[in-house]
Amino acid sequence: MTDAAAQPLLSRLSLNQETIRQWSLPELADGCARAGLRGIGLWRAPVRAYGVTAAARLVRDAGLTVTSLCRGGFFTAADPTERRAALADNRAAVEEAAALGTGTLVLVSGGLPPGSRDLAGARERVADALAELAPYAAERGVRLALEPLHPMYAADRCVVSTLAQALDLAERFSADQVGVVVDTYHLWWDDTVGAQLARAGGADGTTGADGTTNAGGTTNTDGTTGAESAPSRIAAFQLADWITPLPEGVLLGRGQLGDGAVDLRWFRERVDAAGYRGPIEVEIFNPSLWSRNGTEVLTEVVTRFLRHVT
Amino acid sequence: MTDAAAQPLLSRLSLNQETIRQWSLPELADGCARAGLRGIGLWRAPVRAYGVTAAARLVRDAGLTVTSLCRGGFFTAADPTERRAALADNRAAVEEAAALGTGTLVLVSGGLPPGSRDLAGARERVADALAELAPYAAERGVRLALEPLHPMYAADRCVVSTLAQALDLAERFSADQVGVVVDTYHLWWDDTVGAQLARAGGADGTTGADGTTNAGGTTNTDGTTGAESAPSRIAAFQLADWITPLPEGVLLGRGQLGDGAVDLRWFRERVDAAGYRGPIEVEIFNPSLWSRNGTEVLTEVVTRFLRHVT
User: Fold this and answer.
1) Closest residue in A to B247 (Cα–Cα)
2) Which residue in chain B has the smallest CA separation from A248?
3) B309/B6 Cα distance (integer angstroms)
């Protein structure tokens, strides 16, 4: 892609704060503003430690917007008391998102309750929780963004493992209330992900008279995009690369863009074609990035983004 | 299940030798025979070290059969020289399987070539390799058993990640030449696996007049099973449980039956319903089993099998 064409994509680049977790919130706001970024993705724990109102002001004063808040969810408990506590915590997360001015609350569903082997039951409890939370969130201008996590997390972290499953759940609700997160790290291996991305964009799977697939996001003759008539279910788009060997616990082994097996540009083009026009967040959990100078890491992220994503 | 009903299932129990890798081949044959098992699954490296002909005689003299040989495959290389070497090695594996008297050669496809991000291309090379090997194997009485591995191995070990993908590949060939391996450790997380198991059994997905799904393996009025008219694609059925946290490299963290998240009985019932009547192999890679007395581990395997699978 030419430099001129890359510019609009670069303006959508957002840094998820866990990528450079060695930075405090003020360092993050300052560092991202200096690098010319417009958005950052935040996590609840550091935001609460700093103070939600103060964090919102800090980000705003730096000329940045919060592209998403990570994360609510973890509502697969079968026990009624645990379930009530999880829902209360998710309502608090909605309020924090609203206070930060982001319309996107990322949800990781939670895994199997201890001793349970009932994946289908846990997945139904995710649907029940979404039904309770979606109107509450919508009233506060927040859309629930359900994130499918890699199947290696199905037991202990997230029973929603594929984009198809996430869409099956999200489509029970209106598109402005519940969307999905597309994270390359979690979805790259799936041979159906291209078709599911088209589905997320509102594609009906039929082939148009011109031989192209009638996917959401293709430009109509009146200049509007298909995505406008059938709103995209994609609420957030996150990038990380897949590298091996995986570390113990498999949580902190994500790769810098371009270092691994994921065809990041392929994903970005299909997410584009699905009508998504929002932020593109880089979210890499890796201690090798956390031990380095934050500004140097951010420079590398921008360079890699230009090389592998635009 | 009653003891009487469990008996036919117990007679199908087979021990994959990697579960008790501390045993030499003679110890394995002796230990399994003493425990009343009828089958064992073998790996190429220890068989070659012992001598293929000698191993075949050893197993036969112990009154056991070889239920599968692990493994061929690793034929995703794009480089022609590497590819030729991989195919030659697979022909050798076919010959070893035939010499051991097993009709089942387990194939793990291989991952992405170094630096490649082309999953679709790698998967097509798997199909090409199957086309070269399947007639060669069939002439020697060996069926290729393509194994989908958990998506966490997609980059470095196996680009075939779901049962649906494995069936898509297998169905390009006749069912007696190419089948699939159903391993609970790799497939348990997938919400489509029930439907894919029915597909593997020859189900056509339509609902019969009695309201039951017309899956292969249901008993017809003439006493034959649907699987006989539409042969099952399931060439091998392997058991291990899913436990967390995963160890570094994620290879040696499989759980003893009943210790983890997998509903093993659910799988066994669906594999039954798909018309599979072959061996049920327990294949657990875990150093905590290897550090124990082999006979004690095998006794535990049998106990757990009766409790969680039958």
Assistant:
1) A248
2) B248
3) 9
Nearest to A13 by CA among A41, A42, A34: A41
Read off the pLDDT of residues A113-122 as tens digits, 9 standing for 90 and up: 999 999 999 9
Count of CB pairs separated by less than 8 Å, A with B: 96
- Amino acid identity of residue B134, one-letter, is A
Question: What local confidence, expressed as pLDDT, does residue B227 receive?
Answer: 41
Which chain A residues are within 8 Å of B191, Cβ to Cβ?
A: 119-120, 123, 161-162, 165
What pLDDT does residue B48 have? 98
**Interface touch B151/A151, C-beta < 8 Å:** yes
- The whole-number pLDDT of residue B186 equals 98
Is the torsion defined by CA of A216, A220, A222, A225 positive or negative? positive
CA distance A161 to chain B (A): 8
Residue of B152, B187, B193 for testing the chain A interface, max A β-carbons within 10 Å: B152
* Beta-strand relationship, B234-239 and B280-282: parallel
Task: Tell me if B155 and A190 make a contact (CB, 8 A cut-off).
Answer: no
A126 vs B208, more confident: A126
Q: Which residues of A touch B244 (CB under 8 A)?
A: 155-156
More confident residue, A256 or B7: A256
Q: What's the whole-model pTM score?
A: 0.92
Q: List CB contacts of B89: < 8 A, sequence separation 6 or more.
A: B72, B74
Distance of residue A258 Cα from the nearest chain B Cα, in angstroms: 10
> Tell me, what's the ipTM?
0.91
Strand partners, A40: A15, A66
DSSP state for residue B212 in the 8-state scheme = S
C-beta atoms of B246 and A245 within 8 A? no
pLDDT at B221 over 90: no
pLDDT at residue B210 above 50? no
pLDDT tens-digit readout, B69-114: 999 999 999 999 999 999 999 999 999 999 999 999 999 999 999 9
Considering CB atoms only, which of B150, B162, B260 is closest to A152?
A: B150
CB contact (8 A) between residue A156 and residue B260: no
Render pLDDT for B141-192 as a digit per residue (tens, 0 to 9). 999 999 999 999 999 999 999 999 999 999 999 999 999 999 999 999 999 9
Structure confidence at residue A230 (pLDDT): 55
Indicate the SS3 state at residue B33: helix
Q: Which of B244, B247, B266 sits opposite A156 (nearest CB)?
A: B244
Note whether B260 contacts A118, CB cutoff 8 Å: no
pLDDT at B214: 35
pLDDT at residue A210 tops 80: no
Closest residue, chain B, to A119 (C-alpha): B189
Angstroms from A155 CA to nearest CA on chain B? 6
